[in-house]
């Protein structure tokens, strides 16, 4: 995910009396977005709130939220996994998506309306959802961190700071007093990892794998996001092309450097009309260097939903299932 988002210039140029009342009530919550490092435990207050520390300072959130909103889909997935009741409408990203990712818990989303909130933020729709708390993982955007508490108490963190997303997830679970739910997901995920890993070992399957992307005439092999986390959890060999900090970018005349990869995993957004995942490498079909690569010849290319990359419980579990299906058909 890029941090170069298109930002809204103002938060509601005009507002009705009801809207102003809602904003004033939210501002009275005591939310503080001042800078502070790290996170810590929470204090439960008599007024049904919890005072917690985030990377952006002390903030007060409901002890028992009933209408939570996730600013990005990864935030929404965390809320669902932690069993926190949702506001009646929730954001999705606009690029290729018309609804929530298919691998999310659809039962938890039954009756929930969606609205586009990325890459351009839709403060009006966030306000209209009437959340009693907001989870914001886009903490890299100072404007967003500053404005959201004017709508509802907000817990912000930077979910795209290069850390394993599971560290942020653990901090969110602690802040919302949902450690038990966090631990239940962790145990479920680990059990699946152990099962797949054992079956790979039993079958003697030990390929070299890599996340491989294509765009603007270039191939990018990079460990950005969840794929390499899953590969490492499974003990798979990862192509050394991912080792530079930004991965390796290759022109179409350099494709022979991919010859050491046995399985390529690539992401794409669903087609807006069909919802299907198209072949991201279709433009390379006539390239002889590409056609000669072993993973192309053997049809060892697994295409998965782009939203799995960005770090959330359902995304990581779903990508683990993509790897399982590819390597253990």
From TrEMBL:
Compartments, as annotated in UniProt: Cell envelope
Keywords annotated in UniProt: Signal, Transport
Highest taxon of source: Bacteria
Leader sequence segment: 1-28
InterPro entries on file: ABC_transptr_periplasmic_BD, Bact_iron-sidero_bind
Domain spans labelled Fe/B12 periplasmic-binding: 67-329
Primary localization class, coarse: other
PANTHER family, sorted: IRON III DICITRATE-BINDING PERIPLASMIC PROTEIN, IRON(3+)-HYDROXAMATE-BINDING PROTEIN FHUD
Family of the protein in this entry: Belongs to the bacterial solute-binding protein 8 family.
Protein name as annotated: Fe(3+)-citrate-binding protein YfmC
Species whose genome carries this gene: Oerskovia enterophila
Upper classification of the organism: Bacteria, Bacillati, Actinomycetota, Actinomycetes, Micrococcales
């Amino acid at each position: 995910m890029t941090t170069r988002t298109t930002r809204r210039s103002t938060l509601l140029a005009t507002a009705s009396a009801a809207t102003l009342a809602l904003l004033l009530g939210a501002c009275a919550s005591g939310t503080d977005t001042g800078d502070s490092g790290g996170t810590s435990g929470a204090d439960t207050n008599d007024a049904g709130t919890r005072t917690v520390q985030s990377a952006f300072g002390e903030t007060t959130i409901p002890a028992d939220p009933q209408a939570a909103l996730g600013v990005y889909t990864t935030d929404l997935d965390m809320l669902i996994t932690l069993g926190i009741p949702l506001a009646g409408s929730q954001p999705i990203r606009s690029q290729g998506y018309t609804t929530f990712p298919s691998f999310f818990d659809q039962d938890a989303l039954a009756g929930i309306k969606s609205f586009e909130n990325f890459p351009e933020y839709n403060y009006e729709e966030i306000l209209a959802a009437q959340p009693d708390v907001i989870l914001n993982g886009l903490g890299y955007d100072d404007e967003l961190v500053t404005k959201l508490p004017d709508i509802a108490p907000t817990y912000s963190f930077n979910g795209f700071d290069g850390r394993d997303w599971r560290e942020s997830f653990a901090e969110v679970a602690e802040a919302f007093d949902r450690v038990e739910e966090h631990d239940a997901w962790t145990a479920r995920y680990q059990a699946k990892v152990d099962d797949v890993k054992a079956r790979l070992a039993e079958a003697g399957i030990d390929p070299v794998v890599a996340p491989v992307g294509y765009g603007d005439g270039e191939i990018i092999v990079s460990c950005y996001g969840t794929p390499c986390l899953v590969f490492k959890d499974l003990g798979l060999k990862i192509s050394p092309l991912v080792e530079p900090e930004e991965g390796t970018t290759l022109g179409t005349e350099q494709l022979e450097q991919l010859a050491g990869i046995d399985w390529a995993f690539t992401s794409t957004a669903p087609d807006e009309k069909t919802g299907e995942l198209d072949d991201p490498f279709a433009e390379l079909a006539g390239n002889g260097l590409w056609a000669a690569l072993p993973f192309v010849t053997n049809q060892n290319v697994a295409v998965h939903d782009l939203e799995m990359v960005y770090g959330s419980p359902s995304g990581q579990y779903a990508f683990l299932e993509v790897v399982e299906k590819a390597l253990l058909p």
